[in-house]
Design brief:
The protein is built from eight helices and ten strands. It has 262 residues and is of the alpha/beta class. Strands 3-1-2-4 form a four-stranded mixed beta sheet. A four-stranded mixed beta sheet has the order 7-6-5-8, sandwiched between helices. Strands 9-10 form a two-stranded parallel sheet. The protein is elongated.
């Protein structure tokens, strides 16, 4: 049976004070002054010094707390309709690469997030993923993250041209059209933003295609780095142009010919 990973206290505190319903059923909040325990989404907001967190309902009950009559934490395994059920969550891990650590996440269906840890939009995209999937993100691994780790190692060694790990895209219909088109760009080749727009049947939507390219949350596997300017110049890569240059160099030659220092 898969063990549910325990969250750090700072993450439970954030989820509780932001009323994040995606964490309902993942942990429980007990209030010392009233003797009750609640869901993270409970409207009540006691002072931090009066709160303690429990990973399971059983632990809260054994500690002497009773269920809150306002948020009813014992109903439907602690999760309201439409939220994560049966312990579902997004597993997230850091994976080290020659170009810096990647924050990677996967659902039970496949990889849904791959970003360099220093990307400027990392936190925003992280929040988008959590809200779209309506599931908490926990510090854990699963079979897809382990497969991704192995495939990334082979990719950076110049031994892998096509990733096999399943992906879970989560965007608007237009964004997903763009992202699926990106996946068709052959290893070691590039296209322009104009060509990208034309390939999805929207030749005038160059800027929209470029924006969708920039909103890609699965770096490398959805190869937005293979899109360049009209004259071949390297533009618009959230992980940094130095990484874009090195990724293209790796794919063209099978190795990093130059320095990987940014």
């Amino acid at each position: 049976m898969e063990m549910k990973p325990r969250l750090a206290a700072v993450e439970m505190e954030r989820a509780f004070y932001e009323k994040d319903a995606s964490y309902d059923g993942v942990f429980f909040v007990a209030v010392k002054t009233t003797g009750i325990f609640c869901r993270p989404s409970c409207p009540a907001r006691p002072k931090r010094e009066n709160v303690e967190f429990f990973a399971t309902m059983r632990e809260a009950i054994f500690a002497g707390y009773r269920p809150c009559k306002r948020c009813h934490p014992t109903r439907v395994n602690g999760a309201p309709p439409g939220q994560a059920r049966n312990g579902a969550y997004i597993a997230a891990q850091f994976i080290e690469t020659p170009l810096g650590p990647l924050l990677c996440a996967a659902t039970r269906e496949g990889v849904c997030f791959v970003e360099f840890s220093d990307r400027r939009m990392l936190e925003y995209n992280y929040q988008v993923i959590r809200k779209r999937f309506r599931m908490p993100i926990l510090p854990a691994s699963n079979r897809y993250l382990e497969q991704l780790r192995a495939e990334l190692n082979c990719y950076f060694e110049g031994k892998l041209e096509k990733f096999q790990v399943p992906l879970v895209l989560c965007g608007t219909p237009f964004q997903e059209r763009v992202w699926n088109e990106l996946r068709k760009i052959p290893y070691g080749e590039t296209i322009s933003y104009q060509e990208l727009a034309a390939r999805i049947g929207e030749p005038k939507a160059i800027r929209a295609a470029a924006r969708a390219n920039g909103m890609n949350c699965i770096s490398i596997l959805v190869p937005c780095h293979r899109v360049v300017g009209k004259d071949g110049e390297l533009t618009g890569y959230g992980g940094g142009l130095w990484r874009k240059r090195l990724l293209l160099e790796l794919e063209r030659t099978g190795a990093f010919a130059g320095s990987i220092a940014n």
